[in-house]
Amino acid sequence: MYLHHLHLPGLTPYLCASTIQSHCVRVFLDYKALPDLVQRKKSLPYPTLLTFQTPPTYTCGRREIGRLSLSQIAYLRNEGKAEFHEALRGGQTTFHGPGQLTAYLIRSLETRPSSSCNHVQLLETSVINTCAKYGIEGSTTENPGVWTSPERKIASVGVHMRRYVTSHGIGLNVTTDLSWFDRIVACGLVGKQVTSFEKEGVLVEDVREVADIFACCIAASLPGSVEVKTVTAKEVTRQSSDE
Question: Could you tell me which of 39, 69, 121, 173 has the fewest CB atoms within 10 Å of its CB?
Fold first, then answer.
């Protein structure tokens, strides 16, 4: 089996990445909507990992949709220096931007209650293993995400699931300008700090390098024998359940 890895170069507008993600989700949902007899004649779509960086962007989770005031949103947009968007993922308001690896994993899970928790654990474990490649010791705590200490969070995790098809994923700070987090209570955790590879003393020239390692860690954590296959945006967007 393959894990399709699509890395978008440069800075990708959040809505552009969201559109690609929505297409990948739709491919899975269309497959699940097929009659059982038709499904047996087709292969389940391969899981897709979408990795990218955005311009400065704040997003809120589904519990906060429609709850932020116009003045709060204006404060986050900071006179046009940042974007703000609502997202269907879990979690609260967070920041995405240059120097941060944002990664969305779209795949179909087994239909059982524990699948969602297992998926989040897979993401967190893959982040921890990615950090370990750079000599950074990451761990999980009672709070969501990956931490380098009980007080310093290096990666946020927020997912969405529809008919056991996953979307959204992680934001891993590599060379992120952490001052952007000063405008929010990151993920709603008062008194906690954010950190990055750079703040932990690890210098990385290209976030793409971290994205490739993260893809390998995801593949190693998925069930079965999984090989990473790099794909283009054109290949992903032309994919359909009819193939």
Answer: 69
Q: In terms of pTM, does the model score above 0.90?
A: yes
Does 187 qualify as catalytic in the annotation? yes
Tell me the H-state helices in 49-164.
70-77, 115-133
Catalytic residue among 131, 187, 216, 217: 187
Task: For residue 106, give both structure tokens.
Answer: 């779209």
CA distance 157 to 64: 16
DSSP 140: -
Measured CA to CA, the distance from residue 118 to residue 112 in angstroms comes to 10
Distance CA 180, CA 7 (A): 24
Order of strands, sheet of 94-96, starting from the edge strand that comes earlier in the sequence:
83-86, 57-60, 94-96
Q: Profile the chain (243 residues) by mean pLDDT over runs of 10 residues.
A: 97 97 96 89 92 97 91 96 95 95 96 91 98 98 94 96 97 98 83 95 97 98 95 88 50
Strand pairing of 165-173 and 152-162? antiparallel
